[in-house]
Every structure is written in structure tokens, then in C-alpha cells.
Design brief:
single chain, alpha/beta, 2 domains, seven-stranded mixed sheet, 30% helix
């Protein structure tokens, strides 16, 4: 089993990341909706949606939203908040979900760069493009890998709900690696996150190959200009 299928379906994944900043996510989404003039009842597909925090907020702003993710546990949790205009499904991002159907497709919070082969990354971008209507918009929100590597925190310990997470970070073979050693009462576990240190040049190739055009590049959730050295994020706005 691939590391991401194993880790993202683990209860420890949800414990470690349970306090993610919803206000930051909502701030980003409101800026996106305003900047892109996304209209109510537009159809949006959120790819690698996790438990659906972005999808749910888009839906609260009046969009018809589908969230898809490979993780059974994440989708099971997300489905509790479904309604007529918000649905969640298990789905592999490398496969087309619904061709030429969506006004907007999103892939947010570094939910990319997981695959061993570059061909799979390209397949994922191709599928994202295929899901879009003509003139549709793809939004990819990825870490700024160069900035992350320079400021990498080599190790830290977090204790959450009585569980100890000993986290080690490193860069190997152009991957940013996070080794997570877990002590939970009498049991010990080890998981690894392994994300490719993809740059703007890498994404530019994937996006061009998928027949999309980059129309904006931002460096943070305020949608300020991207700077290779200092920006926190690499946010790409692409058009079909």
C-alpha cells in the first residue's frame, strides 16, 4: 500500500492534524471567490478534499460542491455534513471524475506530489483538466518547496490527547520527508509523509501538458505576488 493511502486512513493522521486553521482556510476561500468572481450555484470539484473543510465552506457560500478523496475514513467523516448541494465520494485523483462538468476544480493545502512516478502527477493534472468545462478554472495550492526546504524544522515533539508524536523532517532525493513516530500508551507506530519538492517550473510543465494556461500565480492566502525565496505558498490559477 502507498504511504498516503496508509497514513491518511489512520486515526493518528486525524488526531495529529485535527487543529488545522479553519479561519485561515475560510479567509483563503473568500479571497478566491472574490478574485475569480465565482458565482453562486457554480459547480465545484474539490480534489483530495480530506474531511471536507474547504468543500463545506465553498458550499456555505452557495456553490454546488463535490468533494473527492482516496481515504475511506475521511470521506465517511465528510459525508455526515452532506446536503442537496454538497456530496462526497471516494475517488482517485488520477482518474477523471466527471468530464467537462465543473466550473471550478480545486486541489488545496499541498494535496499533491505524493506519487512515485511523474507520469502519475501528470495523469492527475490531466484528470483535473478533463473535469473542467471549457473556460473553467483550476486552483492548485501547494507549499513553496524552496522556502520549506530552507526553513525546515528538523524535529519536534507534539503531545495530543495523551499520544506522543515524534516528528523528524528531512530532504532526500528531491522529496520532503516527514517521519512520524507515535507512542500511544503501550503501542508504537511509524508513518511517513513523502511529498515531492515540486517547483513552479514542474507545475508549469504539468499544466501546459494538460492543455491549461496559468493566468495567476500567488504566494500566500492574501493572494499576494509569488516570490520563489520568501512566499509561504505556491498558488496557481489555471484556465481551460
Amino acid at each position: 500500500m502507498s504511504w498516503f493511502a496508509n497514513w491518511f486512513d489512520s486515526p493518528y493522521y486525524h488526531i495529529l492534524y485535527k487543529n488545522r486553521d479553519d479561519k485561515e482556510a475560510e479567509f483563503f476561500i473568500e479571497n478566491l471567490v472574490q478574485h475569480l468572481h465565482i458565482k453562486k450555484r457554480n459547480k465545484l470539484l474539490d480534489i483530495a478534499c480530506g474531511k471536507g473543510r474547504h468543500a463545506k465552506y465553498f458550499n456555505s457560500l452557495g456553490l454546488n460542491v463535490v468533494g473527492v478523496d482516496l481515504s475511506f475514513n475521511s470521506i465517511t467523516a465528510a459525508k455526515k455534513d452532506e446536503n442537496e448541494t454538497l456530496q462526497f465520494f471516494i475517488h482517485d485523483m488520477r482518474e477523471v471524475y466527471q468530464e467537462n462538468h465543473f466550473d471550478v476544480v480545486t486541489n488545496l493545502f499541498t494535496s499533491f506530489g505524493y506519487f512515485e512516478k511523474d507520469e502519475d502527477e501528470q495523469k492527475a493534472i490531466n484528470a483535473m483538466a478533463s473535469n473542467l468545462k471549457k473556460e473553467g478554472i483550476l486552483v492548485i495550492d501547494f507549499m513553496n518547496a524552496k522556502n520549506v526546504m530552507v526553513n525546515l524544522v528538523a524535529s519536534e515533539i507534539k503531545i495530543i490527547d495523551g499520544i506522543t508524536f515524534n516528528i523528524k523532517r528531512s530532504v532526500r532525493n528531491n522529496h520532503i520527508i516527514k517521519d512520524i513516530h507515535i507512542s500511544d500508551s503501550k503501542t508504537k507506530h511509524h508513518f511517513q509523509e513523502k511529498v515531492k519538492a515540486l517547483t513552479l517550473a514542474n507545475f508549469s510543465d504539468f499544466i501546459a501538458n494538460a492543455g491549461l494556461k496559468i493566468i495567476d500565480i500567488f504566494g500566500n492566502y492574501k493572494l499576494e505576488e509569488f516570490n520563489t525565496q520568501t512566499s509561504d505558498r505556491l498558488i496557481l490559477i489555471c484556465k481551460k
